[in-house]
Every structure is written in structure tokens, then in C-alpha cells.
From TrEMBL, chain A:
Keyword Cell membrane (UniProt): yes
GO cellular component: plasma membrane
TM regions (residue ranges): 6-24, 33-50, 86-109, 116-135, 141-159, 171-190, 210-231, 264-283, 295-320, 327-354, 360-377, 413-435, 447-469, 490-510
Membrane topology annotation: Multi-pass membrane protein
Residues in NADH:quinone oxidoreductase/Mrp antiporter transmembrane domain copies: 137-345, 365-463
GO biological process: ATP synthesis coupled electron transport
Protein name as it appears in the record: Multicomponent Na+:H+ antiporter subunit D
Compartments where found: Cell membrane
Stored InterPro entries: CPA3_Na-H_Antiporter_D, NADH_UbQ_OxRdtase, ND/Mrp_TM
Alphabetical keyword list: Cell membrane, Membrane, Transmembrane, Transmembrane helix
From TrEMBL, chain B:
UniProt source species: Haloarchaeobius iranensis
Keyword set, alphabetical order: Cell membrane, Membrane, Transmembrane, Transmembrane helix
Organism phylogeny: Archaea, Methanobacteriati, Methanobacteriota, Stenosarchaea group, Halobacteria
UniProt cross-references to Pfam families, sorted A to Z: MnhB
Cellular component terms (Gene Ontology): plasma membrane
Coiled coil: none
Location of the Na+/H+ antiporter MnhB subunit-related protein domain: 10-164
Name used for this protein in its record: Multisubunit sodium/proton antiporter, MrpB subunit
Length: 547, 173
């Protein structure tokens, strides 16, 4: 039991921290201390959980998949939490980014701002993210999405100016519509398959005849659900909320939104479409342009088109932005495009059974590993860049390119952090970004997709273009008046540097990371293990949890 | 100083009569919530409705000065009137209670949020000679406790604190 209690530990640490910061909200210093301690404890809890999962601890005799039944109600009726390699990977990147963004917030958000519930909201957002990564119940996933979104609504409108309110209003309305669709799709899936537990759903979809399920509606409902996840991940054509929201939010919140919250959409796509829906019995899709009988045969091309459009639109739009935040926001649309086309190759790999060299074995694993490593790269690099943008704003007082110039000579530490993170985004060895791009290209080559290789190349060139422009306009060149009179904020620079060093460290010691990514990809594809670990293979009446 | 001069006598009298009723119904819903219709949420909403009635009929100053003994000074700050601070603390304490009941289960080695309940009946062994002892001690004084009730109390505080904070901030503007 003790090992399995660890599954819920990150969630509880974040929840308890959020509550404690709320209780002590009258004492700003105590609140900061509690918040910082909670951030550190969260990293500790995640590290312990990852250590247990990676060392092969498991439930119901399945190595590396820990399950936990909340309230002691057995699966499939109670809510199951599952920590496998995939969840562990996502939690790991969340922990790193959240701690540094939190450290940045404590130095960056002014006293009055911290008094107005910044810390409770931040930790509640973390609760939502953690819950989304851990849950194995599709309705519970909706609940965690809401927890995450509710907090992010307030954090986006945090400065409450006209521009922020406009951006937040757009963000709120859009996500409310998205949530309504999500609820609709989940209700439909429940009435079609008769279950909300993801493992149970996968099991029933694999054997529809004996559970009396008609498969045809599942494809449509999963497509509705897909739209919602695409919206959260900010993929074309659901990308237009991204720039305004990221610009309006305080810098550390933008770092969290771009680095972590977007990845929740990516994670949900991997978990639901590769673990659950891919397992469905063959169905006659009879759709134009779709070859194959798996749901992924439909989502593969969809992912490819959306990813391709994101890469092009995000990259092109990022090139001529007027300020750092807009550039970074459009850049995240393009970068998430890379993740999504890697997923498209993985989907193709699942459908066609393409082989890839060891240690991957198949394009399915290679594509997913590429998507995960790229997610890690984007989380670290983009979070570092957003924090750098916040540090520039705090020091110089502006992030408009016309006010900037020559920061490199004036604030070398900050510039070094920005430079390393930007190189990671471009994909220069030995940074983690190089391996991310490399794996995406590798997946494209093994999938035999020349179009994919071309797109990735175009995306890489666009990345170089806008990163170079940001560097030239902001950090090199004539020192502007604002930069001359800047007051450097060294505490803020330190958090940027630490993130940049992590991006470098992950790249230098890449072996364990790629192993973790490959294991995570395998965990996403091993539906049988997932079902067994939840304790469902025997019979519906068996007592689910490990107790 | 008298309160609610700008409302009618009818409104003030009706408010005085209905207020205790509303609160009693709220508390009874709270107490039966763990195994009958009711619960912390609906009880909290009803309690907040009772406070809303007081706000409307007697004004915000009445609540702040008479119930909490604070000076009332309407200010334009984001945080709203001083009483909001109390509501926010109530909200936080409620969350702590609700989460605490979940964590309490873990102290007994059970998963988070596990709850338990038990029916306690006093022994009628020594009082069996009293006529109707079974009824009195077996039925009337039967006590059913459930840890879910503690969770409900937490929810109640959250709802009361949250709704009243919203009412006070929005009403104060």
C-alpha cells in the first residue's frame, strides 16, 4: 500500500500547498515561504514517484504501472489513478518547470499581486495538471481540466487591464465552449461504451461484440474529443487564442501555460488515442483518404495536416512580431506542430506496422518518443524564454523590439540564458532540442515521409529565422536608451539560467532521458498492461485496487 | 445608528421571521447530507442566501458592524471590504477540513478520501426494566456517525465563504 500511496502524493502535495497558501493569505511572507516549500516538496514527491515507477514497482503484477483507487472504490466504478512511464515522464517535466516558474513568480509578482491569490491559483493549476496526468477515468480527466482552466482564467486576467481582460474573455469563452464539447463527447462515450474508466473502455472497445457496443459512434465522439484537446494544445486551426492569452498573463504563468499546460493536451491525445482508442476492434471507416480500419488510420492524417499547418503558420507568423512575447507565443504554435507531426508518424506506424531500428523497434515507438522528447525540450526552452522575456520586462520596462537592443553587453547573464534556451529551440547539439529535432527527423525518415522531412526542415529554418531576429533586435546591436537605464534583476536571471542549464544537462546526459521516453512510448502502446494493472482482466466484479 | 432605514417595515419583519427558518433548514440539510438528500453544498448555498437577505434588507454595514464588530469603510480596492478577508479565511479553512478528512484516511493506511461510518446504540442491558427501553435507547438515542459528515462541513464552509466573498465584493462596488 505504501508504494501505491505515492501515486497520489504529487497531487496531494500540490493540493495541500494550495490550501495552506490560502489559509495564510494574510501574511504575505508566510505565504511565499509555504508556496516555495510546496514547490520543492512537489519536485520531491514527483522524483520519488518516478524512482518507484522506473525501478519497476507495479500493481497487479505489472511492472512499472502503479495504480491507485481513490476512496477505496474498486475499478471500474471508483476513480483510478495510474502512474506509468508516460505519466512519470510528463510529471517530471512539469516538476522542473513549475518549481522554476514559481521561484520566478516569488521575485517577479509584486506584493499586491501576491496578496490577490496568486499562490493558491498557481498551485491549484498545478493540481489540475497533475490530476490530468495521473487519472485513468475519462470524466475525472474533465474535472482536472476544469480545475486547471479555472485557475488559468484568473491568472490570465491577473493584471486586469483592458487588454488583459479582452484576452481573458476570449480565453474563457473559448474554453467554456471547449469544455461543453468535452462533456458532450464524454457523455456520448459513456452511453456508447457503458464505462468511464479508460482501461475498461479500452477493454470493451477491443471486444465490442461481447459488451454489446456499436463502434461507429466511437469514432465521431473521439473526433469531438480530439477537437477539445487540439484546442488546449493550441494547434491550427484552434491556435488563435494563444498569442493574446500568453501576452496578457504574467511571465511565469505564460511559461507554465506554454511549457506545461499545452502538454496536457498532447498527453491526453497520446493517452486516449494511442492507449484507448487505438485498441478498438477493426472497423470499416469508409472515409475518403483513410486507409486502414483503426481509429488511428483516421487520426493519423488529421494529426499530420494540423501539425503541418501549425509548423508553417506558427513559424511564419513568429518571424515578423513586434515584441518578444508575441514572437514566443507564435513560436509555441509552431513548436507544438513538431510534436503533433511526430504523433502523426507514430499513428501511421501503429496502423501500418512500420519497423524502425533498435532501440525503438517500431515507428510507433519512435514517433511517440520523439513527441515526448520534443515536449520536454519545448517545456524547458520555451519556459526559459518566457521567463527571460519577463526578466527583460522587469529590468528594462519593455519587451517591444523597438525599445530593446544591446542587452547582451548590459546583462550578460540573462543573455546567456536566453541564448542557450534559444539554441535549444533551434536544435543545436548538445542541447536537448537537438535530440528532439533529431528524433522527429528520424521518425519522418523511418516513416518514409518525404513531405514530413520537408516540413520539419522548413520548420527548423523558420525557427532559426525568428530566433535569430529576436537575438539580433533584442540582444545585439546598438544599446538602446531603455536598456542603458535598466536595473538588472539578478534573481530573475538566475531562474532563466537554471532552466537553460537543465536544457543543457538533459542534452549532455541524454541516455537516461531517451530511455525514459522510449519506455513511456511503450507504456502508451501497451494497452494490455494498462488494463491488467488497473485490475480488470479477470472479471467486472473483482476488487480493483491493490489493497 | 439604525440599519435598513431605506427598506419597508414589511421587508424587515419578514426577514426577521424567515432568517432563523432558513438557517435551521440549512443546518438540517447539512446534518442529513451524508445519507439523505442534502449535504454541505446545498446547506452552504442556503446559508449564503440567508446572508444575502440580510445584505439586501439591512445593508452590508449591519453585517459587518453588528455581527463581526468591524468598522465599515467602503473602499475601491480589488480585495473589497474588510469582511471579505474573513470569508476568504473561512473558504480556506473549509478546504483544509475537506482535504483533511481525505488525508485522515491515509493515516489509517487507506486510500485518499476513504470514508467510514458506524451506528452506535447504547446498551439496554441495565435499563431493560424501563418501559419502552428498546425504543428509547435503541431507536431514539441511536447515533449514526460518518466521517463523510466532516467532509460535508468542509464543503459547507467553502460554499459559504466563497459565495459570501463574491456577494461582498460585487455588492461593495
Amino acid at each position: 500500500m505504501a508504494t501505491e500511496q505515492l501515486v497520489v502524493a504529487p497531487l496531494l502535495v500540490a493540493l495541500v500547498t494550495a490550501i495552506l497558501t490560502l489559509v495564510v493569505h494574510r501574511y504575505v511572507r508566510a505565504q511565499k515561504a509555504v508556496s516555495a516549500l510546496g514547490g520543492v516538496a512537489y519536485v520531491g514527491a514527483v522524483a520519488m514517484l518516478i524512482q518507484r515507477v522506473r525501478s519497476g514497482a507495479g500493481s497487479h503484477g505489472v511492472e512499472g504501472v502503479l495504480t491507485y483507487q481513490l476512496s477505496n472504490w474498486g475499478a471500474p466504478f471508483g476513480i483510478t489513478l495510474v502512474a506509468d512511464d508516460l505519466s512519470a515522464f510528463m510529471l517530471g517535466l512539469t516538476a522542473v518547470v513549475s518549481l522554476l516558474a514559481l521561484a520566478f513568480s516569488i521575485l517577479y509578482v509584486d506584493e499586491a499581486g501576491q496578496r490577490v491569490s496568486y499562490h493558491p491559483l498557481y498551485h491549484f493549476m498545478l493540481v489540475g495538471v497533475t490530476g490530468s496526468f495521473l487519472t485513468a477515468d475519462i470524466f475525472n480527466l474533465f474535472v482536472w481540466f476544469e480545475v486547471m482552466l479555472m485557475s488559468s482564467y484568473v491568472l490570465v486576467v491577473f493584471y486586469s487591464g483592458p487588454r488583459h481582460t479582452k484576452a481573458a474573455l476570449q480565453y474563457v469563452v473559448l474554453n467554456l465552449v471547449g469544455s461543453a464539447f468535452m462533456l458532450l463527447a464524454i457523455g456520448g462515450l459513456y452511453s456508447t461504451t457503458g464505462t468511464l474508466n479508460m482501461a475498461d473502455m479500452a477493454r470493451r472497445l477491443a471486444d465490442p461484440a461481447s459488451f454489446g457496443i456499436t463502434l461507429a459512434p466511437v469514432l465521431g465522439l473521439s473526433a469531438v474529443l480530439f477537437v477539445v484537446f487540439a484546442l488546449k494544445a493550441g494547434i491550427v486551426p484552434f491556435q488563435w487564442w494563444v498569442p493574446a492569452a500568453y501576452r496578457a498573463a504574467p511571465a511565469p504563468v505564460s511559461a507554465m501555460l506554454a511549457g506545461v499546460v499545452k502538454k496536457v493536451g498532447i498527453y491526453a491525445i497520446i493517452r486516449l488515442y494511442f492507449t484507448v482508442f487505438a485498441n478498438a476492434a477493426p472497423m470499416d471507416l469508409a472515409l475518403p483518404g483513410v486507409v486502414g480500419e483503426s481509429t488511428l488510420a483516421f487520426f493519423g492524417p488529421v494529426l499530420f495536416i494540423m501539425g503541418a499547418a501549425s509548423i508553417i503558420l506558427g513559424g511564419v507568423a513568429a518571424v515578423n512580431r513586434d515584441n518578444v512575447d508575441d514572437l514566443l507565443a507564435y513560436s509555441s504554435i509552431g513548436q507544438v506542430g513538431f510534436i503533433v507531426i511526430a504523433l502523426a508518424f507514430a499513428a501511421g506506424g501503429v496502423v501500418a506496422g512500420w519497423q524502425a531500428p533498435e532501440p525503438y523497434g517500431s515507428v510507433a515507438v519512435l514517433g511517440l518518443a520523439a513527441a515526448l522528447v520534443y515536449s520536454l525540450n519545448h517545456a524547458l526552452a520555451k519556459a526559459a524564454l518566457f521567463l527571460a522575456s519577463g526578466a527583460v520586462y522587469e529590468s528594462v520596462g519593455s519587451i517591444e523590439f523597438e525599445d530593446l537592443g544591446g542587452i547582451a553587453g548590459r546583462m550578460p547573464l540573462l543573455s546567456a540564458g536566453f541564448f542557450v534556451a534559444a539554441l535549444s529551440l533551434v536544435g543545436i547539439p548538445p542541447l536537448v532540442g537537438f535530440f528532439g529535432k533529431f528524433l522527429v527527423f528520424d521518425a519522418a525518415v523511418n516513416a518514409g515521409s518525404n513531405l514530413g522531412i520537408g516540413l520539419a526542415l522548413l520548420g527548423a529554418i523558420l525557427t532559426i529565422a525568428y530566433v535569430t531576429r529576436a537575438w539580433n533586435r533584442g540582444f545585439w546591436g546598438e544599446r538602446s536608451e531603455a536598456v542603458e537605464q535598466a536595473t538588472p534583476q539578478y534573481g530573475l536571471f538566475a531562474t532563466v539560467l537554471v532552466l537553460a542549464v537543465v536544457a543543457l544537462g538533459v542534452g549532455v546526459a541524454f541516455d537516461p532521458v531517451v530511455e525514459a521516453a522510449i519506455d513511456a512510448a511503450n507504456a502508451a502502446l501497451e494497452t494490455g498492461d494498462y488494463i491488467e494493472a488497473v485490475g480488470l482482466e479477470d472479471s467486472l466484479t473483482s476488487d480493483g485496487g491493490g489493497h | 445608528m439604525s440599519y435598513g432605514d431605506d427598506t419597508t417595515v414589511i421587508a424587515r419583519t419578514v426577514a426577521r421571521i424567515t432568517l432563523p427558518l432558513v438557517l435551521v433548514v440549512a443546518i438540517s440539510l447539512l446534518f442529513q447530507g451524508h445519507n439523505l438528500p442534502g449535504g454541505g453544498f446545498i446547506a452552504g448555498v442556503l446559508t449564503a442566501a440567508a446572508f444575502a437577505l440580510v445584505y439586501i434588507v439591512f445593508g452590508m454595514e449591519y453585517v459587518q458592524e453588528t455581527i463581526f464588530g468591524d468598522e465599515y469603510e467602503p473602499d475601491g480596492s480589488v480585495a473589497g471590504p474588510a469582511v471579505v478577508d474573513r470569508y476568504r479565511t473561512l473558504f480556506g479553512v473549509g478546504l483544509a477540513v475537506a482535504a483533511g478528512t481525505g488525508l485522515g484516511a491515509m493515516a489509517f493506511g487507506k486510500p485518499f478520501l476513504t470514508h467510514t461510518d458506524e451506528v452506535v446504540k447504547p446498551s439496554t442491558e441495565y435499563v431493560a426494566w424501563i418501559p419502552g427501553a428498546d425504543f428509547i435507547f435503541g431507536t431514539l438515542f441511536k447515533f449514526h456517525w460518518a466521517t463523510a459528515f466532516l467532509f460535508d462541513i468542509g464543503v459547507y464552509f467553502v460554499v459559504v465563504g466563497g459565495l459570501l466573498a463574491i456577494l461582498a465584493v460585487v455588492g461593495g462596488e
